[in-house]
Amino acid sequence: VFGEDKVKTVMEGDSVTLNPDPAQTQGFLRIQWQFKDNKSPIAYTDGSKPTYFQDERFRDRLELDHQTGSLTITNIKTKHSGVYRLQIDLNGGPLNVDYTVTVSESPSVTDAVKGEMKMESVKVGDRVTLQTDVTELHGDELIVWRFGDEGKLIAKTDIEAKSSPVYDPDERFRDRLVLDHQTGSLIITNSRITDSGLYRVKISSSKQTLYKRFTVTVS
Fold first, then answer.
1. Strand order from edge to edge, sheet including 6-11
2. What is the percent of the chain where pLDDT is above 70?
3. What Cα–Cα distance (Å) separates residue 105 from each residue in 54, 75, 213?
């Protein structure tokens, strides 16, 4: 038996909770969650302490409620987009419910008002460093820098994936951005008048999510 699809749309770095219908889980014998077409479960409970299975994509990200069967995914990334299947074993037989999760890179409207604001003033041609004040990263951070009121993505790195930073491909910042992979700070070299404006960073990990904002004035 297949339940109706349930759709969740979240942004990178946020958390999402997939909540089963209590009427469907009442008196369950076993609850098991799978991801995409993988037959292997990622989380399981028989009503006692939950069990998590070896899957590097979800390392330290899953929280399964052993009483309700709800599954929370923290610090979610685009690679976690897809169909999550909940299998509920009942006395009357199994019930499967699918949840479709879409992880978006779009900036959050609320991000614009979150975080401490810092002011930076530099002269044209100078270097400016936007300090996150992070002393140490945990190793699974997703760092996203955005510019302007529209929240244009200008720099991004996934520490856990050990991938090189991705920078804004247009001409505004070409070859002038350096993202510090140890602190998440952003360096703008050879600054220009057009670099003036609002910068914001979101550093999310399984431990916490940090927001900071900077107003840069280049004169």
1. 6-11, 93-104, 82-90, 30-35, 41-45, 51-52
2. 92
3. 27, 13, 18
Task: Answer yes or no: are the C-beta atoms of 213 and 118 closer than 8 Å.
Answer: yes
**Residue 110 or residue 87, greater confidence:** 87
Count of other CB atoms within 10 angstroms of residue 158 = 19
Write down the pTM of the prediction: 0.65
Q: For Cα atoms 201, 35, 91, give the angle at the middle one, nearest 5 degrees.
A: 135
Q: Taking Cα atoms as reference points, which of 30, 96, 38 lies closest to residue 64?
A: 30
Backbone phi, psi, residue 125, to 5°: 95, -15
- Kindly write down the DSSP assignment for every residue of 76-129, as one continuous string: --GGG-EEEEEEEEETTEEEEEEEEEEEE-PPPTGGGG-SEEEEEEE-TT--EE
> Cα separation of 44 and 49, whole Å?
9
